[in-house]
Amino acid sequence: MKSDAELKKIKQSLIKKGVKYCVGAYVDIHGVPKGKFVPIEHFEHFAKGSELYTGYALDGLGQAPNDDEISSVPDLEHIIQLPWQKEVAWMPADNHFYGKPYPLNSRVLLKNILGEAGKMGFGFNFGIECEIYVLKQDEQGRLFVPNRDDNLDKSCYDVKRFLDVFPWLDEMVTTMNGLGWDVYSLDHEDGNSQFEFDFKYANALTMADRYIFFRHMAKAIAAKHGLLATFMPKPFADKTGNGAHFNMSLADKRTGKNLFESKKDPRGLGISPIGYSFIAGILRHGRALCAVLAPTVNSYKRLIRRGAMSYYSWAPVFNSFGTNNRTNSIRVPMGGGRCESRNADSSCNPYLAAALVLAAGLEGVREKLNPGEPHHENLYELSPAELEMIGVQELPRTLGEAVEAFA
Asked: Are residue 80 and residue 127 in the same domain, yes or no?
């Protein structure tokens, strides 16, 4: 906790920048930000957790109507002055109960699992690939692609359709880089009016904070341009879905060295024994993890081989790992040194999903699990009998199946 003098200094700095209100944004179980807006004059009380909430009014916080209130305590190390609404300062926040971190808050949960990793000597490097559709709605509320020229059957990486939406894309990247996120790539994705933003990985807590803010920011900036940004996993049956692929590696907590990198990998993927055990832990719980990586009914319209599309969906359908082969749910990109969980979609709560994926991976490391040999083949082409022969399970086909696996 910062001293009164430190809090006063932060307050004066915010006032000088034009801030009039502060919000400590914690999330419900769905990853939706919640919070009260506090005038800057009351910053010191706000910073100490003055704002109280009835947890029963929110999903997944485990409270009944007769329970005492929870508070929100803002993270003062991650203050964002909204670039498009400079009167407001946004801070990620943790819920507390009776003065202690509330364990059912998913940000608190992620901190706790990171603490377990730290006791094992590990840091957790984490990156999220942010996929998003920018659309409009007709009078009946139906979504449609606003650019009539964005109608290719395979529009991935298309330059012309990218430049058609350049003003929104440019404002997004300018804003993200202004926040220090270091965007290194963006492109038109496979769906019509679908785009992807990639920025530098960070520690898991920072990346999850950023993904929550990214979703809010994308919607706000899209609205300025007369567009509607959606993170719905599968807005259209005949187009690809919105993923939020998790890129992960463990690091030496003391030196920061990537512990997944290996130049002596007999499998040839550039992954260390620790990395393989981490992957094996995720695969052990792969079907259950879908409940948090793909947490909506709509999510399972994405996790299909083809469906109404004219070609394969690119979505993971199998609880398997392999090379740069995108028919696996766990992919090791070229060059190795990290693994990518492709189950995660854009509707997930990144704190909750990252915490449980990390816990599964750490279990694999503790038990020195072996994931077996990587799959190079096109798994989409294999029959159920052929998949059984090579020991590959399918992922859940519905949210109900995923919840059953999780239970």
From this structure: no
